[in-house]
Amino acid sequence: MIACLRLFSALCLAALLAACASSPSSSLGELPRTPDASIEQLLEQAAKSKDPEKAALLRLSAADLAYRQGNAGQSAQILQQVPTEQLKPGQQVFASTLAAELAMVRNQPKAALTALSHPSLQRLGELPVEQQVRTGTVHARALEADGQTLAAARERIFIAPMLEGEAASKNHEAIWTLIASLPTDQLQPTTDDDLGGWIRLALAVKTAGTLEQQQAAIDNWREHNPKHPAAIQLPLPLTKLKELASQPLSKIALLLPQDGPLASVGRALREGFMAAHYQAQQAGQKPPAIEFYDSSRLNSLDEFYRKAQADGVQLVVGPLEKPLVKQLSARPQLPITTLALNYSEGEQGPAQLFQFGLAAEDEAREVSRRARADGLHRAAIMVPKGEWGDRVYKAFSQDWQANGGSIVATERVDQPVQLAQQIADMFQLRQSEGRAKSLQSTVGSQVAAQPSRRQDIEFIFLAATPQQAQQIKPTLNFQYAGDVPVYATSHVFSASGDQNQYNDMNGIRFCETPWLLDANDPLRKQVTAQWPQAGGSLGRLYAMGVDAYRLAPRLGQLKALPDSRIQGQSGSLGMTQNQRVERQLPWAEFINGQVQRLPDTSR
Length: 603
What we know:
The protein folds into 3 domains: 227 residues, Serine Threonine Protein Phosphatase 5, Tetratricopeptide repeat; 105 residues, Response regulator (Rossmann fold, 3-Layer(aba) Sandwich), CATH 3.40.50.2300; 149 residues, Response regulator (Rossmann fold, 3-Layer(aba) Sandwich), CATH 3.40.50. The protein contains 26 helices and 15 strands. The strands form 3 sheets. It has a 7-stranded mixed sheet with strand order 7-6-8-9-10-14-15, sandwiched between helices. Strands 2-1-3-4-5 form a 5-stranded parallel sheet, sandwiched between helices. Helix 2 runs antiparallel to helix 3, helix 5 runs antiparallel to helix 6 and helix 10 runs antiparallel to helix 11. The longest helix has 20 residues.
């Protein structure tokens, strides 16, 4: 009876191994595959096995099963028990691939790439196609997460011929997403292989201006590359571009307040919008008709959309009021595509909603980007007390720290009378004075000592009004910190032309709209001749109105082509994944009472 049980156990173990291993390969070793046993059974058999290779194979299979079942923690624990160095090369590839997949679950792409640098990966091409695809897929994901976009695309192009069905389609779209996300200056088609073809397609689309020109560029590329995978199956975003080009925009609703507290803001936006419309007419284009609606008299959004549909409107620009934008954002869908001129608090709205505004958060992130480009690493922050200051602080600090910067001091500005004390605290001047007094008491005589400030602050991020900035910069000079660079949002600039005011802010660098930095722009000249206020701080709203008009026909284009941008009057405009238009801005500096534009940096 006992002999029979032993025979039965041996047969069970043989069956388990046969179920979780592929056919033997002389030097590469057997690979685990989906077993007909539970994790516990596999581990139990591994513990009982007297063959180290079979025990390792069982544990490797158990670790893989735990990963497939969504238990990454258990999978990692089991994988640690597998003596990788004792495995054969094929099994080492399998273990390294699983280690990389687990690293990606933890959002650690560098650890994944380290796992995939194991010497055994040199023999990946000798393994079954399924293993090559699995390894190549996680490699592509890790490269993308590590910012190596082109290398990730190259990896996906390599595995593409091994895929079929839905997996092939998803990989095909992923290749285009990666290539299309590269800035134009990184699209260098140096080869005639599939990668070179993808790059040429992206270049053709990105360097064309209008939807019609893009469509012609796509057709021309397909004609010259008929056997390329993207010519055989055009990526979905480019298919959508084709649909957009066949549906020209003929009527826009402009939904802005004409009465109430936001009437002046609405007026500036409307005048900027219409200025761009008339400029398009003068250039010989056929711009869409504009229908005006008053959001300050709106009783119901549903009623508005019904009327707009009856009027033949294809796109709504507006509303401006934040509560209305919030309502739109909460809806599952909208009857007409809408470009709201403000931002909701939520992350994602309905597919038909796009959002655009002069967000201070964009400018805070712009300061972070510029300071990094200038080689700075350690920041101090000065923002106003209150909700606005909190938002700006959060946007800057998140972007700054996510990109490796550190924050060494923070002050929230409230009463100007406290400025001297706040800046002294920020630079630890009182500690310096205290050390001098301590030394004086020790030696028993007068000590000539100038207060010294801390040296670890490389620059100050400042979000403040012109009046606050006029007080802050001289106070920094007085508190022995006049040589510390100050990077500010556009809020420090009143665009008043007051040289005395600018003298008080000498040396402050700030980001600003192209509209206010380029007085020679032809459209700005026309607008300011009719509405002089457009040359002052209200000019930012005129610029936003101009850009709202130019964005209107290109929303689908920005959505379909990641990382493509429109050079607007309120900044360089791109679109985030949640369909918010975000701005990048040029820079200027107050120098001897003048505003001088600074050279752009590579982004």
